Structures are given as structure tokens and as C-alpha cells.
Amino acid sequence: FDYYQYWVSCDDRDVGKLLRMYTDLPLEEIDALTKVEGAAINNAKSRLAYEATRLLHGQEEADKATKASRQAFGGGGDWSAVPCVAIAEQELRLVDLVTHPDIAAFKSKREARQRIEGGAVKIDGEVVSDPKATLSGSEELRLQAGKKIRLRVILGSASC
User: Which of residues 18, 41, 73 is at a domain's end?
Assistant: First the structure.
């Protein structure tokens, strides 16, 4: 999933070059994918992500990553294919959760506090703007942090 997301997040200007370097797609197809403007370039990025993931990890993993990405970023309600992180602590403040080493959504607690207060973090689809908010329990949480982080999180558990 992270590998796939790396490619989806590439700069729009680099998509054509990356498709040529890291996929085995025919040049004509690459040209057709990249002769677009605006949001349509996202189709080329998705294809780049799929093809690069398929070549390195196999078609099954590329299919899983594509499904997880669509579920996490496409607004769908099914998060079952989205990566899960289990954190041993039973209770955590939101700022500690998003800076936890297994999540690392933000580089520092200072940045995390600013981003949380700015509305960049959602738990179970709801914006949480209090960095001191305490999360607890062993139920699965759906964490969205910024534009790129989508994770299922279980507190107080050894595994997902």
C-alpha cells in the first residue's frame, strides 16, 4: 500500500518520465496517458502506481494496493483493505497517536498540534481539532491525517 501510494503521490510533471523508467508499458500508451491536463493526470498516476507495484510485488499485491487506495481515498466506507497498525497503549492523546513511530503522520508534535488544530486529522470520519483529545479502547479507529495518511488503528492490542 505504501509503495503504491508513493507512486500515486509523485509530481504531475514527472509522471511521463516515471512511466517510461519504471513500467513496461508501450510508449504509445504512455504518451496517451500523459497528454492530459488538470485532474486527468491522476489516471496516469494510478496506472504508474499499479504497474510499478505489479512489477515489484506481483499482480495480486498490486490489485490489493489499488483496492485499498480506492477505499481509503475514494470516499468508500469499506476500509478492510487499508493497512492496520496495532499500538500497545490502551489510551493515547491524539497528538501522541499521530506522531507515534508506527504512524509518523507528522514530523514533530509541534507540527502535529498545528495540523490537528487546523482540521487536518479525522477519526472515524469526524474532524478532531483538539490535540489533547484522548483516544482509548480496543475498537478499530479509522485515522485520516493530512492528504496521504489513511490507516486503521487498534489501541491496546498486540495485533490487527
Answer: 73
The mean pLDDT value of the chain amounts to 86
In the chain, the number of structural domains is 2
The answer to whether residue 76 scores a pLDDT higher than 70 is no
- CA angle 159–8–12, rounded 5-degree value: 155
pLDDT higher than 70, residue 16: yes
> What amino acid is encoded at 36 in this protein?
V
Q: Report the pLDDT value the prediction gives residue 78, as an integer from 0 to 100.
A: 64
| 94 in the same domain as 43 | no
Give me the domain span that covers residue 6. Answer: 2-73
Residue 85 Cα distances to 12, 17, 36, 97, angstroms: 30, 34, 37, 11
